[in-house]
Design goal:
Elements: E1 2-9, E2 18-21, E3 27-32, H1 38-48, E4 76-84, E5 100-110, E6 113-120, E7 123-125, H2 127-135, E8 147-148, H3 152-157, H4 161-172, H5 175-387, H6 392-397, H7 400-403, H8 406-479, H9 484-515, E9 535-538, E10 543-545, H10 551-558, E11 565-567, H11 570-579, E12 588-590, H12 601-610, E13 614-616, E14 621-623, H13 628-635, E15 638-641, H14 644-652, E16 659-662, E17 667-668, E18 674-675, H15 681-746, H16 748-797, H17 800-949, H18 967-984, H19 992-1053, E19 1058-1063, E20 1073-1079, E21 1082-1084, H20 1092-1109, E22 1114-1118, H21 1126-1139, E23 1144-1148, H22 1152-1155, E24 1160-1167, E25 1170-1175
Parallel strand pairs: 3-23, 3-24, 8-22, 11-12, 15-16, 22-23
Antiparallel strand pairs: 1-2, 1-4, 4-5, 5-6, 6-7, 9-11, 10-14, 13-15, 16-17, 17-18, 19-20, 20-21, 24-25
GO cellular component, one term: chromosome
Domain SMC hinge: 533-651
Pfam family, one: SMC_N
Length: 1176
């Protein structure tokens, strides 16, 4: 580590900021005229390194270091040294990672006081930190062996042998040891003188006094024992009297309190009964007034009830009549419906019979006409056969070949048949043309019909899908687990639970919580991460009663600890007390620090043997395992007994002797005290805590049930919404299906499909007509062929057929004239009768339908009237129920008021009697209380006298109360002891004990001091002998090394010469060293034989040899070559440049022989009152 930059600002002659850069790592020289500021650079370097001995920088105080002492406007001096720290082997401790280290020291003048400030790498540091940094690299600025200032060379020249030895010892590090050793020997001499003085004091003064005082002490101790016995016996007698008086006073005071309490209770009871009597009288008057008011209200309600009842009866009667009329109308409507159905059936039957009859009549008439036509044909044929002629009429009327006699008849029929064939052929052609037209029309529409059918198929599929989706949605809606009745029941349960929680359970919990406010701790979190679970709460809340009957005993056993607050550990307790912001004074029980009071097993076994009804208080409470220590702290060591006798046995039995509490709250203590007689307030607290715990549990249960019901309601709401949504979607899907069906029936595609079906029907019809025409044509053609054959056969059969024709004609005439005419007449008569019956049935059917329509209108009117009457009856029934309920309530209220009035009268008489009894009891207790108070006052006066007489010792011996002894024997023994005590006190030295203790302590102290002095003396001598041996080894080693370097360096400075340090006494190196010089081939015995320059070279050689023995990273030399000539200066510069390569040298010199060997030369100059530095 070496200096590579120095920044001076306001220091001595450097008024302005001066930066000196480019320092060499080995040899730097500074030159300049006198007064230019050369040495100020070295002073600045020493200043920044933290020098405190200002004489080394030629200053008396820090103000001298500021430019012109701050008079020129510069009030601050600052020097910064920048060190190169690239060589990590020489790096300061903790700065190995820094390649560059800057140290700054500033002083500022203000208020007449100079202030120091140190910085390392720009960070504020202390002087000690800067010194540590520098000392870690052998730069101790307060013992600066690396700093050789002006005048030190001259000082070395005048040194004596012991001073040369001191320089070697300083280099070896043993100089401080010599100083400490000399100081130690001086201390030993002082301690030996003190030792002799202590020994003489012990032999001549202290030991004789000790023997004399031991005898005086023995006599004094015997007197003390006698005095103690007299005093103890006196105190015991006084305490006996005091105990007796106190027991009497306690008895009288207890009786007085009992009578006072009884008097107060009696007076309070009498007053309470008087107040209760007044309250009862007021209640009776109030009941009478309320009875009067309620009578009026009852009468009004009774009247209103009668009116509503009358109205309800009227409405119900009218409704029953309407309902009866409605039933009759329904029966009449059913009869009309049946009659109309019968008429409709009759009309249908008659119409069917008429149709059948008309059909038979038509068939009969057609058969008659056919037979008449056949008669005419036969007559024409017969006439033709008879006359031999056939005319047109005969040809048209006759049948058979004979009828067609004559060429004219057959020819006409044949022509007619041929004409029919032509007509049927034309009919067939017309059918074919229409059929072709229909088929063409169907062929033109068929493609469109296919597309329309396809589109209709899509709509039909959509309709089918819609119907399926509608059914699916309806099934899903029916599958949803939703019940309106269950929803209403859950809502009712929710309302009941909420009402109980908010109107009953939670107000009860808050009321109990207010009563127990003193058992809760209010605090704020002492820290952000504070865990409130570490505050466990009040003791009263941390346990439950196993036996409620023992609540009063447990409350008394716990006492004030019942209200202590249990915390997890003492840290939590301290945080609460210090930063918890507690509003009231509380006592904390840390679980980690409390000491439980368990009952010893032997005592517990003895208590159960001698008093079986005894139970440890800790067994009567139930608590969490973590609270075991806290419960043992509160209830441990206390027994609970059923009766006072049991408590006495458990408390005062020698094998038990434990504190006991009865179920009534009386406390028995082994010390002899007994308390009780009044119920403990804590008992109420425990009962309230139990009630609060039950109320809290009920609130939690209600909240849990309410949460469950709320979740069920939420599920029901979700299911209700789901059911409603599915039902709505199903309805919407039904509507969509209905719209699709309407669209399907009204669109063009449907009409197109219908027209195609119509064309198919027409085509079938035309095909049937074509087939019929073909069949008729074929029949006409067959008839033409038959007529041709008949005409050919006519001539052959004419004569044979005439007789048969006449017979057949006569028979047909008889049938037509006789049978057919009668039958036809009968058929016409039946047909007319059927038509008359059908007309009559149709009129009856129309009349029935008109009656049904009229009846339906009447039924609709009656239905509206019935609905109105039902609504009115319902409203009136509600009013009737409400009036009946109000009337019953008022009747019950009147009955309750009458009963309450009778009970209040009876209670009033009873309370008056009790008030008189309580007043008499109060007077009796007042008289007894006055008597007991007078007895208490008398015993108190005697106690005060005893307390005043024995005030010096009585307060400290009250614990002896309750001791039982023989007072008469004790008084006789006291008289004997008092006589002996008076004789012994006359020749007694009362201070002998204190004097002996003081002298013995003094003797012991002196003996200890003697031993300590002897031991310390031996240890110091042993240590000195050991260190002397180490010192001589180190001193000899250093002397030899420095001597070697000393001769070598002197030989370099003055070639051909050498020198050395020799001991003045070869047998003892510690007697001193002196310099021997070899010059000119001769050893000089004295330095006086040398010139001034040679002596300066010897001094410089010794200084440099010491520096070489313990090298530092930096050396500062200030004009050490002042006494040297040019050649010796040159040699010294050459020596520094070649021999000290591991350290940086900064040398101030005025001689060219020195700085010509330097690697860097700085020249200082002084201009305008300010120093400047230039690097060359």
């Amino acid at each position: 580590m070496y200096v590579e930059e120095l920044i001076i600002d306001g220091f001595k002659s450097y008024a302005t900021r001066t930066v000196i850069r480019g320092w060499d790592a080995q040899f730097n020289a500074i030159t300049g005229l006198n007064g230019a500021g050369k040495s100020n650079i070295l002073d600045a370097l020493c200043f920044v390194l933290g020098i405190t001995t200002l004489s080394h920088v030629r200053a008396n105080n820090l103000q001298d270091l500021v430019y012109k002492r701050g008079q020129a406007g510069v009030v601050k001096a600052s020097v910064t040294a920048v060190f190169n720290n690239m060589d990590k082997t020489q790096s300061p401790y903790l700065y190995e990672r820094q390649d560059e280290i800057s140290i700054t020291r500033q002083i500022s003048l203000g208020g007449g006081v100079a202030k120091n400030k140190y910085l390392i790498n720009g960070v504020n540091k202390t002087h000690a930190e800067v010194a540590d940094l520098l000392q870690s690299v052998q730069l101790n600025i307060n013992n600066p062996h690396f700093l050789i200032m002006q005048g030190r060379v001259t000082k070395v020249l005048n040194m004596k042998p012991q001073e040369f030895l001191a320089m070697i010892e300083e280099a070896a590090g043993t100089r401080m040891y010599e100083e400490k050793k000399a100081k130690a020997f001086r201390n030993i001499e002082k301690k030996e003188a003190k030792l002799a003085e202590i020994t003489q004091l012990l032999q001549n003064e202290i030991l004789p006094k000790v023997n004399k005082l031991k005898e005086a002490k023995r006599q004094f101790l015997e007197f003390q024992k006698l005095d103690h016995e007299v005093r103890q016996l006196t105190e015991t007698l006084v305490l006996y009297d005091l105990c007796r008086l106190r027991r009497a006073r306690r008895t009288h005071r207890r009786q007085a309190r009992r009578h006072a309490r009884a008097q107060r209770e009696a007076v309070r009871a009498a007053r309470s009964l008087a107040d209760e009597c007044e309250t009862l009288q007021a209640s009776i008057r109030d009941h009478v007034a309320r009875r009067t008011d309620n009578n009026t209200t009852f009468n009004k309600l009774e009247s209103a009830f009668a009116a509503v009842k009358k109205t309800l009866l009227q409405c119900q009667t009218q409704l029953e009549l309407r309902r009866a009329s409605r039933d009759e109308d329904a029966a009449h409507a059913a009869a009309l419906q049946r009659q109309t159905q019968q008429h409709a059936a009759t009309v249908a039957q008659l119409a069917a019979a008429l149709d059948q009859l008309q059909a038979r009549t038509g068939d009969a008439r057609r058969a008659l006409e056919a037979r008449r036509a056949h008669v005419r044909k036969l007559e024409a044929r017969l006439e033709a056969l008879s006359t031999g002629m056939a005319n047109k009429h005969a040809a048209g009327a006759a049948d058979g070949a004979d009828a067609r006699a004559g060429s004219g008849g057959y020819e006409a029929e044949l022509q007619a048949a041929r004409t029919e064939v032509g007509r049927q052929a034309g009919q067939m052609e017309s059918c074919r043309m229409r059929l072709a037209h229909f088929e063409k029309e169907r062929a033109s529409r068929a493609p469109h019909v296919a597309a329309a059918a396809e589109q209709m198929k899509g709509m039909q599929a959509e309709i089918a899908a819609g119907e399926a989706a509608c059914a699916q949605l309806q099934a899903e809606a029916d599958a949803v687990d939703y019940s309106a009745e269950e929803d209403a029941a859950l809502q009712q349960r929710h309302d009941q639970l909420a009402q109980e929680l908010h109107q009953s359970a939670r107000p009860r919990q808050r009321q109990l919580e207010n009563q127990l406010s003193h058992t809760f701790i209010q605090y704020r979190d002492p820290s952000p991460d504070f865990d409130r679970a570490d505050v466990l709460g009040c003791v009263a809340h941390l346990f439950e009663l196993v036996d409620p009957a023992a609540s009063q005993a447990l409350a008394v056993a716990a006492g004030g600890r019942l209200y202590h607050i249990v915390v997890r550990n003492e840290v939590v307790g301290r945080l609460l007390l210090e930063r918890g912001g507690l509003k009231r004074r509380v006592t904390l029980i840390p679980l980690t620090k409390i000491k439980p009071y368990p009952i010893e097993p032997a005592r517990l076994r003895a208590s159960r043997q001698r008093a079986p009804a005894v139970r440890p208080a800790l067994d009567l409470v139930r608590y969490e395992p973590a609270m075991a220590d806290a419960m043992a702290f509160v209830f441990g060591g206390t027994l609970v007994c059923d009766t006072g006798d049991t408590a006495k046995r458990a408390t005062f039995d020698p094998s038990i002797r434990m504190r006991s509490v009865t179920l009534d709250g009386d406390v028995y203590d082994p010390s002899g005290s007994l308390s009780g007689g009044a119920p403990a307030q804590q008992n109420d607290t425990l009962q309230t805590v139990a009630a609060y715990r039950d109320a809290t549990a009920r609130v939690a249960q209600l909240e849990h049930e309410l949460a469950d019901v709320a979740q069920a309601l939420e599920r029901q709401a979700h299911q209700r919404d789901q059911h409603a949504a599915l039902s709505k979607r199903a309805d919407m899907k039904r509507h969509e299906v209905a719209l699709l069906k309407a669209q399907l029936s009204s669109n063009k595609e449907a009409q197109l499909v219908a027209s195609l079906a119509h064309l198919d029907a027409q085509i079938e019809k035309e095909q049937a007509a074509l087939a019929a025409a073909a069949q008729a044509k074929e029949a006409a053609e067959q008839e033409c062929a038959a007529l041709a054959r008949d005409r050919a056969d006519y001539q052959a059969s004419r004569d044979t057929s005439l007789d048969a024709l006449e017979k057949e004609l006569a028979a047909l005439r008889r049938q037509v004239n006789d049978v057919d005419a009668v039958e036809m007449q009968q058929q016409d008569t039946a047909l007319e009768l059927a038509r008359t019956e059908l007309a009559q049935a149709e009129r009856e059917y129309a009349s029935s339908q008109a009656a049904i329509a009229e009846h339906d209108a009447l039924v609709a009117a009656n239905t509206d009237t019935t609905a109105q009457l039902e609504a009115r009856v319902k409203t009136t029934q509600l009013a009737y129920d409400r009036a009946e309920r109000d009337l019953d309530q008022e009747r019950r209220t009147l009955s309750t008021l009458d009963t309450a009035s009778r009970e209040l009268e009876a209670t009033l008489q009873l309370r008056k009697h009790e008030q008189s009894a309580q007043q008499r009891a109060a007077d009796a207790h007042a008289h007894s209380h006055a008597e007991e108070r007078s007895q208490v006052q008398a015993t108190a006066t005697e106690l005060a006298r005893l307390a005043k007489t024995h005030a010096a010792w009585l307060p400290h011996t009250l614990a002896s109360l309750g001791i039982i002894f023989d007072a008469d024997t004790a008084r006789a023994h006291l008289e004997q002891l008092s006589s002996h005590h008076g004789r012994a006190s006359r020749n007694l030295d009362h201070d002998a004990v204190h004097k002996l203790d003081r002298i013995e302590k003094q003797e012991t102290g002196l003996q200890v001091k003697l031993q300590t002095l002897q031991r310390d003396k031996e240890q110091i001598k042993e240590t000195i002998q050991t260190l002397d041996a180490h010192k001589m080894e180190k001193l000899t080693e250093t002397w030899e090394k420095v001597n070697s370097e000393f001769g070598a360096i002197f030989g370099d400075l003055l070639p051909g010469s050498t020198c050395k340090l020799v001991a003045t006494d070869p047998a003892d190196l510690t007697r001193g060293l002196e310099v021997r010089v070899f010059i000119g081939g001769v050893w000089k015995n004295s330095l006086t034989e040398l010139s001034g320059g040679q002596r300066s070279l010897i001094a410089l050689s010794l200084i440099l040899a010491l520096l070489q023995y313990k090298p530092a990273p930096m050396y500062v030399l200030d004009e050490v070559d002042a006494a040297l000539d040019l050649s010796h200066t040159q040699n010294m510069g050459h020596l520094v440049a070649n021999r000290f390569k591991g350290s940086q040298f900064i040398i101030v010199s005025l001689k060219e022989g020195m700085f010509t060997s330097a690697n860097v030369l700085f020249r200082a100059r002084f201009a305008d009152g300010v120093s400047h530095v230039d690097r060359t």
